[in-house]
Amino acid sequence: MWSARALFQEALMVHVVDVGAALAEHPNYQPLIDAGAARLSGFEPTPEECEKLNAKYGAPHRIHPVFVGNGQTQTYHETNVGLTGSLFEPHNELNSKFQQLAELMQVVARHEVQTTRLDDVEGLVDVDMVKIDVQGAELQVFQHAPRVLSEAVLIQTEVEFVPLYKDQPLFADVDAHLRAAGYQLHTFLGFGSRAFKPLAKNNQPYDGFRQILWSDAVYVRDFMHLDRLADGKLKKLAVLLHDVYQSPDLCHHVLEALDRRGGGQRYAPRYLQQLTAPAPRP
Question: Which keywords does this Swiss-Prot/TrEMBL entry list (predicted)?
Fold first, then answer.
């Protein structure tokens, strides 16, 4: 797939903040990193793993060995499956009603940890995209990152629709906060589901019928007020929408906002022409 970066004369460097992700996996923004078009600021609180990730990514990327939260000391609930550990205790009375859920969220240890506000992380400036997956603590991170939210143009966040963790904020809480911060919901990236016990869909314990439990929600800066964003931010938003999320309609809308500022660049028509050009013959 061709990149929307080809529309622009300057070399764009998208600053991606990834909080709580399994950075050893293949994130959706990886093609931008591979192309030298993105700089990653990641977070891995285990010092040994953080050191490995810094060696893997190298400059200009940086992985920080901190727990992101509200800046206070909190209890981290370590579980039998590392990716389900959280600053919130698993709600296994609820989780045990579903196939293969509580079994993946058994607390094996509790640790007192010092958390850091995202806004207080050294060198975390001019952020463009935030990707966050911290098992129920997403709202806490956003509440203590007003500066980062004001700089970014796109947020990808895990959200839950039922409380998999005790007293955790749910999708409606996260949605209200991000809308108040100037974002609009753009899309969901699939839905996590499980079947209520004792049923199992097609004998697959990780499949569900109708009950949805979680998803990744993608938010963009309010597309009714794109005039509030600088040219560079609009260009980076266009690149993220096209290259990472395959959202050509909203990308075109963003490029139209750029064209209205004058300069004769005609980004939107050139983008549309590229989109509708016949595929090259093999």
Answer: Methyltransferase, Transferase
